[in-house]
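Weekly structure sync, notes
Attendees: PL (lead), two postdocs, one rotation student
Agenda item 3: pending single-chain targets
PL asked that the sequence for the first pending target be pasted directly into the notes so everyone works from the same version. It is reproduced below exactly as submitted, 152 residues in total.
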Amino acid sequence: MSNKKAFWFFVVATLLSAGLFIYLTVDTHRQVKHLTHEDNLTDEVIAGKKVWEKYNCNDCHTILGFGGYYAPDMTKAYKRLGGEGIAAIVKNPDQIFASSWRKMPNQNVSDAEIANLTSFLKWISEINNNDWPPQDSDRAKAKEALKLLSNK
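Predicted structure, written out during the meeting:
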């Protein structure tokens, strides 16, 4: 390939890549309201996000791929634990995790803060993230069931 052909190959490939990147970026921004259910973003959800930040939950937990990896991912925690389960864990982590090697500090979170935090985690769990993380995916649970059936 001559230098002239290589140059034009580079220019065309760069322009096509940049165009595709811009298109996908615009497309993603168009879908954000629908995918995140922005219409369900209430004052309680916003207050719950502030509780999440106040107690530095991201130091140990992950949401939507961001945060620490010490404790469980909380992206779909509401589906997994329910509101009452989240409240019980936040209120009494010493008792819940007494026999676990993982420990969660008791932050003495108020009942109002727990309610807001639960609203925030419920809103997060409703975000359409294409079944990520996979451990909370309905499809992953179906795969596990199929494996169990095939082993019998």
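Discussion points:
- The two ends are 60 Å apart (CA to CA).
- The chain has two domains: 1-36, 38-151.
Action: rotation student to compare against the earlier draft before next sync.
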